[in-house]
């Protein structure tokens, strides 16, 4: 008997849209139904639930549904569950579920991430926005200077890359253009059309060097990943994808004190937990809340040297569907919608099962990396089809 | 004033009741030179709230005392497009309702 293993056994996604009328809990249920059908499981077989970041009453649109809500609403009988903001990042919930099934605490864990940021804006009575006047915690050191958005915080890492390593906006544009091109081939994406370089450069600035197309946009959706124990695979009907390694890191909590985004420490750690290396990857699904993030992941994962990420993506050839390392094949968050991390795990599984339709990468991809996190905290999954 | 450890002499920010390097509790706010270097910056064009005048510069300033300590701040006194990474800067406090905000301007 080998070491215990964890697999992704089922995936599901609700309708993805902007200002959806359907309640977030029911969007979550839609995604759960699809994932259960996909895996060939029924609710009675689910004995674990995990989500990130758990319900956030102070910012309900960001996370409107808790693990407890799902357990209660669906009559689940769990032996392990989690919903926590204080973890390595979005995909950390899936990494935790993998640990739980390997430890024998659960057999099938339903992991979800539900976002309702667009719908919440449309319904401020039900989903009160964050109170910007309530300046406390880490934000008291940034908000008084109107560094309010993550766009402002991440933009400064991008500016530094331009000054230190010569990154250009032309190179950065390859990320958004690739995302839109792939999203146009993905029926579930919120973006329906490719993006021309002219349109990119004509777009208004948000926070230099980020223009409108370098920023993901508020989305309403739920994504579900079911994590199952290796010794429970006989209960599964779909092709399982092995969680070959997980990693995560937090070295500073303060966004403005970290010398490097968490993608660097996490990317390095991921390979320490596996027998694979960056050159073994067939596809890369890299967090792109902002267009600069994938560049940090390419460097952090050692796919290219530090300071070379922008040259790797230049022109978009290497990262295209027929490139050496197809990246963000669903359109990522810039194209498919701000699914907040979980979309990258979902798309990895779609591709490794050969179900990508018009956006399917050729050559039967069998090793993928899915990452999440754009600040000092980050998480990554290495996924393999055996 | 920036928080500093009285035992290992390292500067600390944001302030904590304990030194993150030596775990000493002998930490207190100490006068700093007010000089630093622009580690990075962004020109914000998005009016995040009604009445916010754009564009303006948000910067991360590395303190002269310790380059691993950063202050998020605004650069004032010049056109946003004149700001560059590594520019030396000096503090210029701006008072509002009795609170002194440490803004910075380019030195020299």
Description:
The complex is a heterodimer of chains A (386) and B (108). Chain A has helices at 24-39, 67-74, 92-102, 117-122, 150-165, 169-183, 197-202, 263-272, 293-300, 309-313, 332-335, 342-352, and strands at 6-13, 48-51, 80-83, 108-116, 205-207, 210-211, 220-229, 241-250, 283-285, 367-372, 377-384. Chain A is α/β, with parallel strands linked by helices and 386 residues long. In chain A, helix 8 runs parallel beside helix 9 (293-300). The model of chain A has no long low-confidence stretch (mean pLDDT 95). Chain B has 108 residues and is an all-beta fold. Chain B folds into two domains: 1-31; 33-106, OB fold (Dihydrolipoamide Acetyltransferase, E2P), CATH 2.40.50. Chain B contains no helices and eight strands. Chain B has strands at residues 2-5, 11-12, 27-30, 35-44, 56-63, 66-76, 88-96, 99-106. Chain B has a five-stranded mixed beta barrel with strand order 4-5-6-8-7. Chain B is elongated and about 45 Å long. Chain B starts with a strand and ends with a strand. The model of chain B has no long low-confidence stretch (mean pLDDT 96). Chain A binds chain B through residues 132, 138, 140-142, 144-149, 151-152, 155-160, 163-164, 204-210, 254, 256-257, 259, and chain B through 13-14, 39-46, 48-49, 52, 55-56, 58-60, 68-74, 84-86, 99, 101, 103.
In short, what is this structure?
The complex is a heterodimer of chains A (386) and B (108). By secondary structure, chain A is an alpha/beta fold.
- Low-confidence parts of chain B lasting 5 or more residues at pLDDT below 50? none
- pLDDT averaged over residues of chain B: 96
Question: Ranges of chain A with pLDDT <50 over ≥5 residues?
Answer: none
Order of strands across the widest beta sheet of chain B?
4-5-6-8-7
